[in-house]
């Protein structure tokens, strides 16, 4: 009569455990990929709503560019840059009509506020990437 080979049985248990872990990992990855495919649409919709809400605040942002504290100027510039970074229909005309461009150009000269310089240059680059009417 042959006995049970404990090493062989332990190896089988390890193989089964590894297989189960691999299947669980693959299932989690499939689930994650499925969620990623579903979420961008809702995220895009939320971003569009957010951009619309921010566009409504553009007059206030323009006011902060001209009369705000350095922190308010930075936040306004950052928000305008984000609006102009929208993939579809960035509000370039709105920003131009609110007379933001001259102040953004002025911010380029402020060496002591490098973050403000950076955001202003990025916003101006986004404006320049529009149509020839915008430049």
Q: N-to-C SSE series?
A: HHHHHH
Proportion of strand residues: under 5%
- Main sheet specs: none
How many E-type strands?
A: 0
Distance between the termini: 92 Å
Structural class: mainly alpha
- Round the Cα radius of gyration to an integer and report it: 27 Å
Number of helices: 6
User: Which geometry do the CA atoms define?
Assistant: elongated
Spans of at least 5 consecutive residues whose pLDDT stays below 50 are none
Description:
The protein has 135 residues and is mainly α. It is 77% helix and 0% strand. The chain contains 6 helices and no strands. It has helices at residues 6-56, 58-67, 70-84, 92-97, 101-107, 114-128. The chain is elongated.
List keywords for this structure.
mainly alpha, single chain, 6 helices, 135 residues, 0% strand
Strand and helix map with partners:
Blueprint: H1 6-56, H2 58-67, H3 70-84, H4 92-97, H5 101-107, H6 114-128
Helix pairs in contact: 2-3, 3-6, 5-6
């Amino acid at each position: 009569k042959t006995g049970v080979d404990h090493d062989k049985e332990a190896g089988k248990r390890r193989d089964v455990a590894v297989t189960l872990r691999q299947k669980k990992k693959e299932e989690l990855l499939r689930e994650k990929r499925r969620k990623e495919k579903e979420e961008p649409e809702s995220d895009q919709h939320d971003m569009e709503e957010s951009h619309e809400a921010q566009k409504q605040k553009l007059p206030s942002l323009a006011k902060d560019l001209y009369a705000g504290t350095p922190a308010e100027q930075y936040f306004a510039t950052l928000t305008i840059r984000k609006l102009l970074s929208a993939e579809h229909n960035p509000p370039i005309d709105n920003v131009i009509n609110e007379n933001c461009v001259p102040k953004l150009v002025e911010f380029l000269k402020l060496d002591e506020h490098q973050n403000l310089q950076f955001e202003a240059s990025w916003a101006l680059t986004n404006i320049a990437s529009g149509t020839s009417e915008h430049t």
